[in-house]
């Protein structure tokens, strides 16, 4: 069961005649150019039922591999051509491929994006709409990356993955990633179906991914690398450590591309970009020390640049008004219904997902962060951050190599 939204919903939400800041937010390109459209487009080209080729410029291929590099935003890639010569060459068509940005989806964060990739659905449908969200059944915040506190994965995300549908249609499906991810709830709900092959090093993953592509006449393979994202969080996206990781990633992509079997296509993409946020009170607003922002708030979810705000019953309107007054010049601040009507989480939202989304949703539009120094001490100290709808976070590469 789904619940549709229209602009009329936003006009009446919380008694506001117009969605003030919502209309200026750059909504992800769901249905034409988002992460959720990639695997369905590839599977449709292999004849998998129920799949739609939404990204029209991608020609069908018998064998397709998606290499997702965690944290590699389009803007960050274009800003570092010296560290990524091979990837930079794919921005044009010199190697028989094409390169352009697509949008991650909102929020631009790993759990949400991986679910969008694997299910082929936007966040409002797959139901992982943030880093931490309220579980309506318990009233607790649930971390959807670490799956804490635990909730039944299949009840939380009941839709089949594209890999499962592809396997049912006779396509060889495989995921090649770190062994640590094989049995996680996030993998089960987002990326299951076919064969999981755990390999420790990036080089091993590239080699095994190429082998899996050659294992059948029709193959859909996924592989993943996370260390670039970790370097960005700890040191920033222009640090020596991050640049070193980008150089390594560039070599991995070339290694895989040079092993593609005939009639194959490799697609390089990412789950989000990243922005560095300065360490001062102007750029890092501390929720735990701001009595105005805390008033009427029962739970603070999401992450520093993409917040879900769960109000005390009856206080939603006051919280929305306060947050707009305090943060309105730095954040897009919307009520739940305004955000849904504007399409932040996709064109529709499943009924089971509705209450997981905050009563108020706040997305950063400047280089600012809404930290919670007491509740989230580790996250509050990260240099690189992501989650919102700015181009630096939202745009991710879609680079193609064909054999």
Notable characteristics:
403 residues, alpha/beta, 31% helix, globular
What does this structure look like?
By secondary structure, the protein is an alpha/beta fold. It has 2 domains: 2-27 and 278-382, Gyrase A, domain 2, CATH 3.30.1360; 35-121 and 159-276 and 391-402, Alkaline Phosphatase, subunit A (3-Layer(aba) Sandwich). The protein has 17 helices and 19 strands. The strands form 6 sheets. The protein has a 7-stranded mixed beta sheet, with helices on both faces. The chain has a 4-stranded antiparallel beta sheet with strand order 12-13-16-14. Strand 12 (297-303) and strand 13 (306-311) form a beta hairpin. It starts with a strand and ends with a strand. Residues 1-20 have low confidence and may be disordered.
Tell me the Rg in angstroms: 20 Å
Give the overall pLDDT as a whole number. Answer: 93
Q: Which fold does the CATH topology of the largest domain refer to? A: Alkaline Phosphatase, subunit A
Number of strands: 19
CATH class of the largest domain: Alpha Beta
Estimate the global geometry from the Cα principal axes.
globular
Secondary structure category: alpha/beta
């Amino acid at each position: 069961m789904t619940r549709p939204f229209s602009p009329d919903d936003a006009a009446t939400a919380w008694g506001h005649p117009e969605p003030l800041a919502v209309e200026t937010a750059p909504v992800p390109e769901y249905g034409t150019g988002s992460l959720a459209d990639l695997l369905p487009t590839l599977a449709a080209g292999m004849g998998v039922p129920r799949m739609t080729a939404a990204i029209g410029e991608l020609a069908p291929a018998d064998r397709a591999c998606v290499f997702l590099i965690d944290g590699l935003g389009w803007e960050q890639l274009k800003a570092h051509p010296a560290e990524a010569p091979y990837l930079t060459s794919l921005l044009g068509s010199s190697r028989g491929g094409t390169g352009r940005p697509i949008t991650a989806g909102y929020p631009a964060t790993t759990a949400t994006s991986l679910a969008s990739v694997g299910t082929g659905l936007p966040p409002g449908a797959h139901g992982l709409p943030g880093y931490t969200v309220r579980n309506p059944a318990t009233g607790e915040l649930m971390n959807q990356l670490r799956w804490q506190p635990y909730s039944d994965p299949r009840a939380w995300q009941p839709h089949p993955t594209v890999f499962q549908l592809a396997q049912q249609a006779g396509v060889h499906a495989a995921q090649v990633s770190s062994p640590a991810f094989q049995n996680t709830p996030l993998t089960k709900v987002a990326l299951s179906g076919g064969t999981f092959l755990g390999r420790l090093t990036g080089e091993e993953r590239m080699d095994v991914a190429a082998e899996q592509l050659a294992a059948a006449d029709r193959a859909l393979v996924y592989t993943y690398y996370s260390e670039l994202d970790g370097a960005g969080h700890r040191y920033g996206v222009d640090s020596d450590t991050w640049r070193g990781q980008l150089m390594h990633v560039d070599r991995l992509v070339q290694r895989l591309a040079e092993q593609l079997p005939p009639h194959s296509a490799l697609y390089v993409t990412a789950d989000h970009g990243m922005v560095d946020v300065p360490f001062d009170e102007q750029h890092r607003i501390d929720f735990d020390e701001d009595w105005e922002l805390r008033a009427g708030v029962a739970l603070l979810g999401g992450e520093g640049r993409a917040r879900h705000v769960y109000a005390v019953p009856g206080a939603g309107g006051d919280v929305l008004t306060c947050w707009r007054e305090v943060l309105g010049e730095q954040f897009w601040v919307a009520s739940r219904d305004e955000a849904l009507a504007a399409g932040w989480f996709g064109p529709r939202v499943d009924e089971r997902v509705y209450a997981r989304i905050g009563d108020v949703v706040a997305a950063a539009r400047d280089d600012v962060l809404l930290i919670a120094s007491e509740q989230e001490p580790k996250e509050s100290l990260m240099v690189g951050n992501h989650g919102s709808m700015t181009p630096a976070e939202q745009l991710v590469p879609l680079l193609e190599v064909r054999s």
